[in-house]
Design goal:
The chain has helices at 2-18, 31-39, 44-53, 60-67, 70-78, 88-104, 109-117, 144-161, 165-175, 184-200, 205-221, 225-249, 272-292, 300-318, 329-335, 339-354, 360-376, 382-403, 417-438, 442-451, 454-459, 470-482, 489-498, 531-537, 564-568, and strands at 124-129, 132-138, 293-294, 297-298. It is mainly α. The strands form two sheets. The chain has a two-stranded antiparallel ribbon with strand order 1-2. A hairpin with a 2-residue loop joins strand 1 (124-129) and strand 2 (132-138). Helix 13 packs parallel to helix 24. The protein is elongated, with a radius of gyration of 32 Å. One of its GO terms (biological process) is transcription initiation at RNA polymerase I promoter.
Length: 611
């Protein structure tokens, strides 16, 4: 009987003998003593703990439940353990541990938030030889999406246990925002994760968008349009020359173009600041599209809510910023979703311009945005354009009525800046939209334009043609002469005589006053130069089409064939554009962009390349 019993148990004993011993954790001392040494600068024992905990065979619950407690985690949070790259069991135990910590001791809330937010951007990988960095690049770990998922899972758990988390989170998000000179990859990942936070903490959405757009404006104003055009044009010429050389001398060797190496579609900007801005704009526009659309259809309520947040940020940080070239296009893109959004935006700009209590600089900026938006928005019907003109033109006549008989009825941009900006907005709109107004019913269209009484505006004592940009003035004069609306050339010639250079002065010295434009203005929706995000703007953007039947005496600059400036802008002689421009990447918009929406496992395919 004993032999039978022994025989029955033998296979089990053999299994026992063949089973490897269970792994245990030996710290060489208590965790409290290890952390005490760490506070004094001795990191040896702590590094040993981290190394041992990285072993995937160690049971996570034993480690966290037995060896760590609330009193020791503060230091652990400042030097986080490698929990993100571990198994799902370790991650779950660590998340449970964080939940217990913040619910029991909210004093550690900020430390927990900092620990999580630090992982919103990829780590830097440095390879050294002899204390010299031979490689310094972003971590291209393919598990980054999983890492980001766990970070957001931790943040949602903290928010669930501490409802006041949002009060403490925003300063940390701002503080941890990467420096704008960091790589496009780092900025892309961080902006992606910030926007994902706004999905499950909606109270922070406006603040998060304001933070992102403020950082983007810093990049935008530091990369002037002329500088981007010059760099991109030079790079394109160099690439063309290099390709010719390859064909002549290296016919058997295939090399990737430097312009096609960073993105799948090759739409990379050579200008480094423009490349970073392009990356961030692509993420932001994809986010706007996904928030507003559910299953491919526009969700009106969600779109309205997002519109309010975006307009608020526009008023606060975009409108007061002079010479931004691209960031403001997020409103242009949003308004293309539905005509009601475009009309609401124009009405908002009109109310800001019309409000006398607004600072003059903001009123003038609002008028500039109105004119540029009406001229460039391809999705805007002519009825909406006429409705806006019916607001601006009567305002101009009322302004003339109030000034013509007064002591200030003379040309002075400081006194009448809002008037001149509104005049330029009207002239600029008519330059782009007169064909749309006249087509279909020429007689009715001409009657409408005659009813605007443009001649009175042009002939008034305030003399707007002297202040508006020369290119706008000359094109407006040519169009109005063709349709016999206004004859501007007599006034233009008189203004030119009054602005001739003065060679001598009363003091006997020599001086020259150049023919400069006293109205320092800009057109916020001038051609969009960023290549990748520009694919979303191109289908909804009205380019300039040169009228073939208008004789316009404006000196033309020689422009490289195929450039955006050659196709688009008539402002060659009047605005400080570069000698050559850069066309947007050809091809229609192919929608493969997705922004973070789902809380559990968000899509990351909208990013330009896989994590």
């Amino acid at each position: 009987q004993s032999e039978t019993s022994l025989g029955n148990r033998l296979p089990e004993d053999l299994n026992f003998l063949n089973t490897p011993p269970k792994k245990t954790v030996r710290f060489g001392g208590t965790v409290a003593n290890t952390l005490a040494k760490l506070q004094k600068g001795d990191t040896s024992d702590y590094e040993l703990i981290k190394h041992q905990l990285s072993d995937p065979d160690i049971k996570a619950s034993v480690v966290f439940n037995r060896y760590f407690n609330v009193s020791t985690l503060k230091i652990v949070l400042s030097r986080p353990l490698p929990w993100l790259g571990r198994s799902q069991a370790v991650v779950e135990e660590y998340l449970a541990f964080l939940s217990n910590l913040v619910s029991a001791q909210t004093v550690y809330l900020r430390a927990c938030l900092r620990m999580v937010i630090t992982n919103f951007a990829p780590k830097r990988i440095r390879i050294q030889e002899g204390n010299v960095d031979i490689s310094d690049s972003d971590d291209e770990d393919e598990n980054l999406p999983r890492t980001f998922d766990h970070c957001h899972q931790a943040l949602q758990l903290i928010t669930r246990y501490v409802p006041s988390t949002s009060r403490f989170l925003m300063p940390i998000l701002s503080d941890k925002f990467p420096f704008v000179q960091k790589s496009s990859r780092t900025l892309e990942c961080y902006v992606h994760n910030l926007l994902r936070v706004s999905v499950y903490i909606p109270d922070l959405r406006r603040d998060i968008i304001e933070l992102i757009i403020s950082k983007m404006l810093t990049l935008d104003v530091s990369a002037p349009r002329s500088e981007i055009e010059e760099v991109e044009s030079g790079a394109q010429q160099d690439a063309n020359g290099a390709s010719q050389d390859d064909c002549l001398f290296d016919m058997d060797e295939e090399e990737d173009s430097p312009l096609d190496s960073s993105r799948p579609d090759g739409a990379v900007m050579v200008h480094p600041v423009a490349e970073r801005l392009d990356t961030m704009m692509t993420v932001l526009l994809a986010y706007i599209k996904d928030i507003c659309h559910v299953n491919g259809s526009l969700d009106i309520e969600k779109t309205k809510a997002l519109y309010k947040d975006l307009v608020s940020v526009f008023d606060k940080v975009v409108l007061p910023t002079h010479a931004s070239c691209h960031v403001q296009y997020y409103m242009f893109y949003l308004c293309s979703f539905r005509l009601g959004l475009a009309e609401a935006f124009l009405d908002h700009l009109w109310k800001m311009f019309h409000a006398p209590n607004q600072p003059p600089v903001l009123r003038q900026a609002a008028a500039g945005y109105m004119g540029s938006f009406m001229a460039r928005a391809k999705f805007l019907p002519v009825s909406t354009v006429k409705a806006c003109l019916d607001l601006l033109v009567p305002w101009l006549h009322l302004y003339i009525n109030s000034q013509d008989s007064g002591s200030k009825a003379f040309c002075d941009v400081n006194l009448h800046g809002s008037f001149y900006t509104a005049c330029q907005a009207v002239f600029y709109t008519l330059i782009f939209r007169h064909n749309a107004i006249l087509e279909g019913n020429m007689k009715k269209g001409l009657a409408y334009l005659q009813g605007l009484n443009l001649e009175r505006i042009v002939m008034c004592q305030l003399n707007p043609l002297r202040v508006c940009l020369p290119a706008v003035t000359n094109m407006f004069a040519a169009i109005t002469r063709k349709y016999q609306l206004v004859f501007c050339y007599t006034i233009i010639e008189r203004n030119n005589r009054n602005l001739l250079p003065v060679v001598s002065n009363s003091t006997g010295g020599n001086s020259v006053s150049t023919n400069t434009n006293p109205l320092d203005t800009f057109f916020p929706f001038d051609p969009y130069l960023l290549k990748s995000s520009g694919k979303l703007i191109e289908p909804i953007y009205q380019v300039w089409e040169e009228p073939s039947d208008c004789m316009i005496d404006v000196p033309k600059k020689k422009v490289r064939k195929g450039s955006m400036e050659e196709e688009d802008d008539f402002l060659h002689g009047g605005t400080p554009h570069g000698d050559s421009g850069v066309g947007m990447t050809p091809g229609s918009y192919d929608s493969h962009l997705h922004s973070p929406r789902s809380v559990g496992s968000p899509p990351v395919s909208f990013l330009q390349r896989p994590f």
